């Protein structure tokens, strides 16, 4: 049963702490993406990776970092440099060169 | 620049038909997606339009006019479970990467 998993669904952290959000897919997709969703705003691209060991900044990369050591995994670290980290974070993947992106269930991060 | 406009909210009655419009101005255009997103969940793919015209898929249809920068999603025989946000996303090309730019979404409320 293939799909994208994100864990945990809800995450709470204190201000000033780094936190890493997990994203795993077993769809054998080459490309993976991280989006942020805020109320009243569309999804905004944070980082994307088209192949293993390569990733690119999206539109709002400041305060975030990623790694892509394995094809299946694309973790996102929200650093203390991110000024407003509370949001709903969505991971997606696609077959490289194909159009449709498949989304994970999301992680709602709340920074207190 | 990139600009995608859709209404913030719409209401309709069970069994009715509703049309959700999306207008866009983007620097590049490969195609246009419509996604459905229930509150707190992942977006799920509804349709992808590349060429002008109407694409029908069951109760849902999507229309595209590239020359007018306009699309709409048509939902027929509305059901209560259709209450969700509907996201319009334009696919462009950014340094060889197929990038999605999302609108803010239209929240549809279906009442009995």
Task: Characterize the structure shown.
The complex is a heterodimer of chains A (112) and B (112). Chain A is mainly β. In chain A, 0% of the residues lie in helices and 49% in strands. Chain A has no helices and eleven strands. In chain A, the strands form two sheets. In chain A, strands 2, 4, 5, 6, 9, 10 and 11 form a seven-stranded mixed β-sheet that branches. Chain A has a four-stranded antiparallel β-sheet with strand order 1-3-8-7, with no helix packed on it. In chain A, β4 and β5 (44-51) form a beta hairpin. In chain B, 0% of the residues lie in helices and 62% in strands. Chain B contains no helices and eleven strands. Chain B has strands at 3-5, 9-13, 18-25, 31-37, 44-49, 53-57, 60-65, 70-75, 84-94, 97-102, 106-111. In chain B, the strands form two sheets. In chain B, strands 2, 4, 5, 9, 10 and 11 form a six-stranded mixed β-sheet that branches. In chain B, β6 and β7 form a beta hairpin. In chain B, 33% of the residues are buried. Chains A and B meet through β5, β9 and β10 of A and β5, β9 and β10 of B.
Number of helices of chain A: 0
Give, in order, the helices and strands of chain A: EEEEEEEEEEE
Please report the two chains with the greatest interface, counting residues with C-beta closer than 8 angstroms to the partner's C-beta. Answer: A-B, 23 and 24 residues
Largest sheet of chain B: 6 strands, mixed
Q: Number of helical runs of chain B? A: 0
Gross morphology of chain B: globular
Q: N-to-C terminal Cα separation of chain A, in Å? A: 36 Å
The beta-strand count of chain A equals 11
Strand % of chain A is: over 45%
Low-confidence stretches of chain A at least 5 residues in length (pLDDT < 50)?
none
SSE sequence of chain B, one letter per element: EEEEEEEEEEE
Q: Could you say which overall geometry of chain A the principal axes of the C-alpha atoms support? A: globular
Kindly report the average pLDDT value of chain A: 93
Distance between the termini of chain B: 41 Å
Question: Main sheet of chain A?
Answer: 7 strands, mixed
Strand content of chain B: over 45%
């Amino acid at each position: 049963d293939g799909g994208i998993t994100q864990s945990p669904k809800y995450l709470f952290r204190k201000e000033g702490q780094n936190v890493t959000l997990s994203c795993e897919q077993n769809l054998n997709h080459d490309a993976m993406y991280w989006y942020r969703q805020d109320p009243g705003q569309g999804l905004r691209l944070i980082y994307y990776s088209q192949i293993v060991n390569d990733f690119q900044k999206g539109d709002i990369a400041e305060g975030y970092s990623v790694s892509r050591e394995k094809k299946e995994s694309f973790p996102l670290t929200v650093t203390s440099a991110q000024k407003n980290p509370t949001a709903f974070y969505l991971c997606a993947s696609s077959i490289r060169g194909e159009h449709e992106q498949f989304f994970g269930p999301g992680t709602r991060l709340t920074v207190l | 620049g990139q600009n995608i406009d859709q209404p913030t909210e719409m209401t309709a009655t069970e069994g009715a038909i509703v049309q959700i419009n999306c207008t866009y101005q983007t620097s590049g255009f490969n195609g246009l997606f419509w996604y459905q997103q229930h509150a707190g969940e992942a977006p799920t793919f509804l349709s992808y339009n590349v060429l002008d015209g109407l694409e029908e898929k069951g109760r849902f249809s999507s229309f595209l006019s590239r020359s007018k920068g306009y699309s709409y999603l048509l939902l027929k025989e509305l059901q209560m479970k259709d209450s969700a946000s509907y996201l319009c996303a334009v696919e462009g090309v950014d340094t060889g990467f197929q990038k999605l730019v999302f609108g803010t979404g239209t929240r549809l409320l279906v009442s009995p």
